[in-house]
Amino acid sequence: MEKLTIKQALKEGYTHCGSPSKEWQSLHKVEELTIADFDHQTFVLASKIPKTFTFSNDQIKELLIDVISDNEAEESGRDDDNVYEALKELDCTDISNQVDAILKKHCYWTLTDIELTF
After folding, report:
1. What is the pLDDT of residue 52?
2. Residues 33 and 64 both lie in one domain
3. Whole-prediction pTM value?
4. How far apart are CA 98 and CA 60, in angstroms?
5. What residues form DSSP beta bridges with 28?
6. DSSP 8-state secondary structure symbol assigned to residue 38
7. Can you give the residue range of the structural domain that contains 87?
8. How far apart are CA 113 and CA 8, in angstroms?
């Protein structure tokens, strides 16, 4: 496993790290770590470039069509696909853009196989 010191990691553009032993990550800023942080924990670097979850226009549209048509059919007793088919005309581009704008504010990093040392 490749290893980098804090100084090397910062010089190479790494900003975050986490513990490879934890399922849910609590990331740490590399520049804020002290030698005491390494006493009982191993750290690996997180990717240099953060990732952003996206939810496409088509995904939003399909979700809305399914939920709305199912709920409408349950309430009305409708046994045809008329509402489902009519809802396919929805254009969810604006809401998709709004969702993506919100998600961009909540990026995440994935861990690498590079161990961070003090």
Report:
1. 95
2. no
3. 0.72
4. 11
5. 17
6. G
7. 57-104
8. 15
